[in-house]
Amino acid sequence: MANTSQTCHNHASAEAPSETIIYPSKVFNLDVEGQGDEVEGSTFDYSKRAQWLRAAVLGANDGLLSTASLMMGVGAVRKDVRTMMLTGVAGLVAGACSMAIGEFVSVYSQYDIELAQMKREGNTDQKEKLPNPYYASFASALAFALGAGVPLLGAAFVHDYKARLGVVVAVVTLALMLFGGFGAFLGKAPMIKSTLRVLIGGWLAMAITFGLTKLVDHVGV
After folding, report:
1. Can you tell me where the transmembrane regions are (predicted)?
2. Bigger pLDDT: 15 or 109?
């Protein structure tokens, strides 16, 4: 019996009980001696999405709003569909180029600053962690073009003037809700608040552009 008891005691000591302790960002498995082994991260760092999310969401919203506002402004004084479509295409091309160049310059400046800091600290082997200006530039231009394509597609097949304006407002409203909700979902922001902020801002942009263009045309400046 003594040998059996001693064997059980040794077996229990070899397989000491453990408990799992959950910290806000990590999970550790602790044995009875208090030594911890990291098991798995329990949360995702959403700040890692900031670079591409900012370029994509801002690019799409800018493309949508600037192109739709241009089309609404021209539509305030010109009723033919050809003029509105040409205005939208010009806004798409010019805006996509502007977004690409602006994003490239901005991110490259950030890249140079962070790279210089790494050289001072002797950490140049971490260059792959720096933001990619080419990726950010392409993503921004593509997102702008996709956003700008929404009002263009909405207006392309509607020849009646009033119906065309209504369709543009409707499709832009739907797209703003989708972009706002999608951005809030990816960034874990309040869904309704973020969507309403984007939607109301878009309505104001179109209304102000439409109203001021009509006023300038009426005054004859």
Report:
1. 89-111, 134-158, 165-186, 198-216
2. 109
